[in-house]
Amino acid sequence: MSSIIEYQWIKVYIDQDGIEKFIPQFRSDGTQQFWHDTAEIHPTKLLIAPISIELANRMQEHKIPGVAIPLPVYSFLLKSDDIVSAYWDNAIETSSHYFCTTCNTSWKHLDSTKWAKCPQCGEMDAWTCLRCGRTIENTKVIRNQRGEVNCPHCEIPYGLTRERRLERIQDIIENTDYVVEVANKFKITIRQNSVDVISL
Ligand SMILES: [Zn+2]
Ligand SMILES: [Zn+2]
């Protein structure tokens, strides 16, 4: 299981001289500052911003899985009496990849209209008909509307036997969710492809 961090929070506040200052979650050397370390500061704005390539590299030097991905910046304008907090939450996402048992290559099969084929050695699952004894070419192996794979040569529908040479392997990826909560107002969860807002 792997987990990545693609966003950081940045507190923006006005200091006693009226100058706008920033407190980022990750310092330029890649180390983390904790939200409660600067709890006494009242941000006027909170940003949830993607991580730069330089910062991601510095974070990785400290074994923090920062990744630079081009993502939008979320900006929260706050009132002086807002009680705000930002924290991480995790969500599990699953995907899969194929593994070729002939040459030990792993890859992602993205075109679901075609049967998987090893990009290294060209291996595919082998289909045979036990009724007519033929080995069927993969391009002629078609799943019907009922999800069955029948012999294209036999007139009476007859299911093909599949010899698996490619294994489908389930991957588990742990995604980091970014939560911003303004007490008694709302809670926002930011993910790579979606944003959920819950009013409190
Ligand atoms: Zn192969
Ligand atoms: Zn047949």
Beta-strand portion reads 35-45%
Mean pLDDT: 90
Low-confidence stretches at least 5 residues in length (pLDDT < 50)? none
Order of helices and strands: EEEEHEEEEEEEEE
Count of helical regions:
1
Secondary-structure content class: mainly beta
Bound small molecules, deduplicated = zinc ion
Main sheet? 6 strands, mixed
The shape, in one word, is elongated
Total strand segments? 13
Gyration radius, in Å: 26 Å
Question: First CA to last CA: what distance?
Answer: 33 Å
Percent helix range: under 10%
Summarize it.
The protein has one helix and 13 strands; from the N terminus they run ββββαβββββββββ. By secondary structure, it is mainly beta.
Could you characterize the architecture of this molecule?
It is a single chain. With 200 residues, the protein is mainly beta. The chain has a domain at 2-93 and 175-199. It has one helix and 13 strands. Strands 1, 6, 7, 11, 12 and 13 form a six-stranded mixed β-sheet that branches. The longest helix has 9 residues, at 53-61. One zinc ion is lined by residues 100, 102-103, 105, 118, 120-121, 123.
Q: Which helices and strands appear, and what pairs or packs with what?
A:
Blueprint: E1 2-4, E2 7-14, E3 20-24, E4 45-50, H1 53-61, E5 74-77, E6 84-100, E7 106-107, E8 126-128, E9 135-136, E10 161-163, E11 166-182, E12 186-190, E13 195-199
Parallel strand pairs: 1-11
Antiparallel strand pairs: 2-3, 2-4, 4-5, 6-7, 6-11, 8-9, 8-10, 11-12, 12-13
One zinc ion is lined by residues 129, 131-132, 134, 151, 153-154, 158.
